[in-house]
From TrEMBL:
NCBIfam families documented for this protein: transpos_IS1634
Protein name: Similar to Transposase
PANTHER family reported in the protein's UniProt record: PTHR34614, TRANSPOSASE IS4-LIKE DOMAIN-CONTAINING PROTEIN
Domain DUF4277, first and last residues per copy: 8-114
Length: 235
């Protein structure tokens, strides 16, 4: 009499390629170096960020508390590391990591990753492109704006954005929105700089400050639309 060995089938799909690219760039190491590692934790902040990147390619419409379900049928140890279990990726852990990332500075961490990508894949930075877009959201978003206007000099400083009505690039002026500024390389369309802004933000009011901040890290010629050519933005 023969006994059949129990076989468990787990999926990798295209996520194995994504995980491999994340490892090649060294994103987990960058995050852990910036935020630190607590010897008591079962999963590091860098690995949580890796799981969020993988998860973002197919499960973004579900609530945060269902995050771990995405990995139930996946070969999670192949994707995230040995002895990693799906229940380690609970909403409390993810929330704490997100708070730590915000406190450190999302723009700073993003630039660290970008610089590593540029170095590893030898990205040509002679030309890059700046543009803005908007994303509409459902809901009221009643958080009141501070009485004192934020100083223009602090436009890059990270703070909670205000979801408000503004010029809608996706043709939904009836809904509140947020704005995204993105600079990409001409060589491969690699994201080099990203910034999220208030829904009623004007491109002319911030584009100059965005370029100044970008030039602190990366040199080259930045192309954009006519908003870059305003009198206050000529630098």
């Amino acid at each position: 009499m023969s006994y059949l060995e129990e076989i468990q089938v787990k999926n990798l799909d295209h996520l194995g390629i994504v995980a491999g690219l994340i490892d090649e760039i060294g994103i987990v190491k960058i995050i852990n170096n910036k935020l630190g590692i607590d010897v008591r934790e079962k999963i590091s902040a860098g690995t949580v960020v890796k799981s969020i990147l993988i998860n973002g390619l197919g499960f973004v419409l579900r609530p945060l508390y269902l995050f771990s379900q995405f990995f139930q049928d996946k070969a999670i140890e192949k994707l995230l590391g040995e002895r990693i279990k799906p229940d380690y990726l609970n909403d409390d852990k993810i929330g704490r990591v997100m708070d730590e990332l915000y406190k450190y500075g999302l723009n700073d961490i993003f630039i660290e990753v970008v610089l590593e990508v540029i170095k590893k894949f030898e990205i040509d930075l002679k030309y890059s492109h700046l543009d803005s877009t908007s994303f509409h959201l459902d809901g009221e978003y009643k958080r009141e704006e501070d009485k004192e206007k934020q100083e223009e000099e602090k436009i890059i400083k990270e703070r909670p954005i205000f979801i408000k009505k503004g010029y809608s690039r996706d043709h939904r002026p009836d809904l509140k929105q947020c704005v995204l500024d993105l600079i990409t390389s001409q060589d491969g369309d690699i994201p080099l700089f990203v910034r999220v802004g208030d829904g009623n933000e004007s491109d002319k009011a911030v584009v100059g400050k965005v370029l100044v901040e970008f030039k602190k890290q990366i040199k080259g010629i930045v192309q954009g639309d006519r908003q870059m050519g305003g009198r206050t933005n000529l630098i």
